[in-house]
Amino acid sequence: MAQSRILRRAGLTAFLGLAALLLSGCSSSIDNDVLRFGFPSGITPEGESIRELWTWSVIAALIMGVIVWALIFWVVIFHRKKKDSPEFPRQTAYNVPLELFYTAVPFVIIAVLFYFTVVVQNYVGEKQPDPDVTVDVTAYQWNWKFGYQAVDLKDGEPRYDGVDVEAQAAAEAAATPPGGEAEGSEDGEFVPGAIHGVNPQDLSYLHYNKIETVGSSEEIPVLVLPTGKRIEFELASSDVVHGFWVPEFLFKRDVLPNPEENHSDNVFQITEIEREGAFVGRCTEMCGTFHSMMNFEVRAVSPEDFQEYIDLRKPESDGGEGLNNAQALEAIGQSPIATSTTPFTTDRLQRSESVAEGN
Question: Are 132 and 228 in contact (CB under 8 A)?
């Protein structure tokens, strides 16, 4: 009887603890601090789906953990050797139904987790034709260049094609040396020979746009995007492998040089950014000396402000005012500089002197 009471109390305690954990979020929504289990809150529908997968995976793990703990305590309490008895508890083996059960259950759990993971993965990787905004992202050691390849908010304003045709043609022309030969020296510097008729330093795979924001040691690049619109990102690196990560997107993408030659899918979309604000972006691949400082900022603004921003940044030949990024941001009532992260210096001599002074 005493053992039975102990078991019932232990079971009741475990049940109440689990119920309190699960029901604590029912008063508002599943996206509260408790049921996120430390996972950050996203700003896109794709991020929300990733967070929900995390939440339910943790809940499933907790339920399995409680069951396993209950079985362990049940064995400890009811199948231990009695203090006053020289006999061991009854030993059992080869319980075929039980062995089949605990062999099959893990496979069922794995299948369910795999199914929901694939569903979320397909949703996150889904692409639709004709996005509202197409952004070119170019990573380089150790900063970022952002350009607007196309803007069509479908709000009555005409579509804006932002490709810089002249710059693109110049890059393609430089990619193929005349006659496929580029050996020799220029000002004492060796020029490598062409490989398969193409310059080894070919950067023609990069995209060049009329509206571009380029980061520097003195200025964090601010990528301005509209809320409530589908946005497509095309990623490429001009040197080594980098990583594009906005923590509030809740997933990252590798940024490779020459994505087509590297057989990588360098395009992804987000359905929308759900709220305005400034969100830090980072490089997630160890890309050299200043990798940890290779930050940028996403500035989410209303569609109306974004359209005005684009009109201000368009070159005068396209009917715009030709303002730079900071001037256009200030004109729409936004901070002209990044607010989520700060610039850094890439002066290696200064860095060495600082280290020496510290020593």
Answer: no
Residue type, 356: A
Six-digit token string for 4: 């039975």
Per-residue pLDDT of the chain (359 residues; tens, 9 = 90+): 555 555 555 555 555 555 555 544 443 445 566 777 777 788 999 988 998 898 889 888 898 889 889 988 888 887 776 777 777 777 777 788 888 888 898 899 899 999 999 999 999 999 999 899 999 999 998 899 999 999 988 877 888 898 888 888 887 777 665 544 444 445 545 455 544 445 556 788 889 999 999 988 888 999 999 999 999 999 999 888 999 999 989 889 999 988 888 888 899 999 999 999 999 999 999 988 888 888 999 999 999 999 999 999 999 888 888 899 999 999 999 999 888 887 766 555 554 454 455 54
CA angle 157/160/166 to nearest 5° reads: 160
- What are the tokens at 93? 């083996």
- The alpha carbon of residue 331 and the mean position of all alpha carbons in its chain are separated, in whole angstroms, by 30
Tokens of 350: 């200064």
H helices of 206-334, in order, are 303-313, 325-331
As a whole number of angstroms, the distance between CA 326 and CA 78 comes to 72
Could you tell me if 301 and 276 are in contact, meaning their C-beta atoms sit under 8 angstroms apart? yes
Kindly report the pTM of this predicted structure: 0.76
Q: Is 294 left (phi over 0), alpha (psi -120 to 50) or beta?
A: beta
Nearest to 120 by CA among 62, 64, 56: 56
Q: What is the largest CA-CA distance in the chain?
A: 98
